[in-house]
Design goal:
Layout (H helix, E strand, L loop, with lengths): L14 H4 L8 H22 L2 H8 L1 H5 L1 H8 L7 H17 L1 H11 L4 H7 L6 H17 L2 H22 L3 H25 L5
Helix pairs in contact: 2-3, 3-9, 5-6, 6-9, 7-9, 7-10, 8-10, 9-10, 10-11
Length: 200
């Protein structure tokens, strides 16, 4: 292959070096875009009262790609509206990627976290049921009480975190369970902020 046709890996350049090329990043614009898109999406879904619109919003990742939502929301704080929505969509995609594994860990965690199991509402805890719960939680964000949807997601994460630590011994499993537990705590905190009308 000649030098002129050789394929090069893309390089990551600092924002200051991109300015002369007309590609400068704007962190303030990115921040506003994250919060505005989250607010518009949630408002549109809650105002529509149309099951077809709700279904489309629940499945928006299939249309836009998870990376698009990640670009918009993943860097925002967990205790913000875009951060909370990002975690709801990420939870759904994680469950969809491995419903058998998630169901196994959920089932193992039920005996340790009965109150959370009741809130999560997965009965019986099988692959079809966790898939249905993933959609129901996200649908509830648009059709019901947003705080309740966040708390249901948090409870689901609590149960799976306990089950993972029980059925998958080892340092890595414990670390992953800890991250899932932190997600549950973040979702619970976001629910409280929503009720206080301070989740933005």
């Amino acid at each position: 292959m000649s030098e002129s046709r050789r394929i090069h890996r893309p390089t990551v350049r600092e924002p200051a070096r991109l300015e002369p090329l007309g590609e400068a990043s704007d962190p303030i614009a990115a921040l506003h875009a994250a919060h505005e898109t989250a607010a518009v999406l949630l408002h549109a879904g809650r105002a529509a009262h149309d099951p077809a619109v709700t279904d489309r919003l629940v499945a928006i990742v299939e249309e836009t790609g998870l990376s698009t939502l990640a670009d918009l929301w993943a860097e925002r704080p967990a205790h913000s509206l875009p951060g909370a929505l990002w975690r709801l969509y990420l939870l759904r995609e994680w469950i969809r990627s491995d419903p058998d594994g998630v169901a196994r860990e959920y089932a193992a965690g039920v005996r340790f976290t009965e109150p959370n199991h009741a809130v999560a509402g997965v009965e019986p805890p099988g692959p079809d049921e966790v898939l249905r719960a993933a959609d129901e939680i996200l649908r509830g964000a648009f059709t019901g009480d947003f705080a309740v949807a966040l708390e249901r997601a948090a409870s689901f994460c609590h149960v799976v975190a306990c089950g993972r630590a029980d059925v998958s011994p080892g340092g890595r499993a414990v670390r992953l369970a800890g991250r899932l537990q932190q997600t549950a705590n973040d979702l619970t905190a976001a629910a409280g902020l929503w009720r206080a009308d301070t989740l933005v």
